[in-house]
Specification:
Blueprint: H1 16-32, H2 39-49, H3 52-78, H4 90-109, H5 144-152, H6 158-167, H7 179-204, H8 210-241, H9 243-247, E1 251-252, E2 262-263, H10 265-301
Antiparallel strand pairs: 1-2
Helix pairs in contact: 1-7, 2-3, 2-7, 2-8, 3-5, 3-6, 3-7, 4-5, 4-8, 8-10
Keywords: Membrane, Transmembrane, Transmembrane helix
Protein name: Urease accessory protein UreH-like transmembrane domain-containing protein
Transmembrane segments: 12-32, 90-110, 146-167, 179-203, 224-251, 263-283
């Protein structure tokens, strides 16, 4: 057994302490680096909270469910029941489900249509679908980051492979097979809480009148979720149809840090697509917010 901590390619027979430390540190790296399973969702929810505290809460709720999923999958890996996760198309199927949930969440915030009520537990009333969206965007139910976190956790990447094939199988008994996944999730949670707070603080510091800040934040959140969801769905369908081709589209960098070494479709979804959609959503939402503010001022002077 060895106590050497190797976050790039842990191998050999590790001590339990080395396994636990490696899992926690890998989770922290996963949480802070651009990742399609975390950044798009945390960012979209956090800007909608329009505060640092709200952003931290969104990051916590999302990664809480993510942690539960990783602990569950880690236990399955110990029992050698999670091999289905490594099927060539599995990651893209997760993208598809994540994209659908993002898209529906965005439509719900933007007050468009009635499809969301398939997920709106406890609400049986229907809303008539109209051609024009309602003026005021809606906040998401508080449980949605939990739902999204659990779904996103089933995605497969370098971190998941290490947890499921190297760390979890070396745990001493079935009773602790879940621990590496749980520690990985906790490491991710720590970083996602920090990032969520930063995203929320960024939104709160935009020079917007208080009367329109909530409107702009929710509109931006809804548009980012909806637009990002469509991107996830398109990439998922391409990946399911052409898994080898899509998986080989990558740029290799000299950085031996997971998520920064092989810049493939995940980096495209997490960074390029996310921030392109977010920039457009912010610009459009601020313009609408300015018009709303002008109308409010004119109404108060009438």
């Amino acid at each position: 057994m060895t106590m050497d901590i190797n976050l790039w390619n842990p191998s050999g027979h590790l001590s339990v302490l080395a396994i636990l430390i490696t899992a926690l540190l890998l989770g922290m790296v996963h949480g802070i680096t651009p990742d399609e399973h975390t950044w798009p969702i945390t960012f979209s929810y956090s800007v909608g909270s329009y505060s640092s505290r709200g952003g931290r809460k969104m990051g916590f709720l999302f990664s809480l469910a993510f942690t539960f999923q990783r602990a569950l999958a880690s236990e399955l890996a110990f029992l050698a029941l999670s091999q289905f996760e490594f099927a060539n198309r599995w990651g893209y199927e997760v993208y598809f489900v994540v994209g659908i949930v993002m898209w529906l969440s965005g439509l719900y915030i933007l007050n468009r249509g009635t499809a969301w009520h398939l997920f709106d537990f406890g609400h049986r009333h229907a809303h008539a679908q109209t051609a024009e969206p309602a003026q005021e965007p809606r906040p998401l139910p508080r449980y949605m980051p939990l739902v999204h976190g659990f779904i996103a956790g089933w995605g497969v990447g370098a971190f998941a492979v290490i947890i499921y094939t190297v760390l979890a199988p070396q745990m001493p008994t079935v009773w602790v097979g879940w621990v590496p996944g749980a520690l990985f999730g906790l490491g991710t949670m720590l970083m996602q809480v920090v990032l969520g707070g930063l995203f929320g603080a960024w939104m709160s510091r935009r020079h917007l009148p208080e009367s329109v800040r909530v409107y702009v934040a929710r509109k931006m959140s809804g548009r980012t979720l909806a637009g990002g969801g469509i991107g996830f769905i398109i990439v998922a369908l391409l990946g399911i149809l052409f898994p080898t081709v899509i998986s080989n589209l990558a740029v290799v960098t000299p950085l031996h840090i997971h998520n920064l070494h092989n810049l493939g479709v995940g980096f495209f979804l997490a960074v390029i697509l996310l921030f392109s959609v977010a920039t457009w959503a912010f610009w459009k939402s601020v313009r609408e917010g300015a018009h709303l503010s002008e109308r409010q001022i004119a109404k108060s002077h009438a």
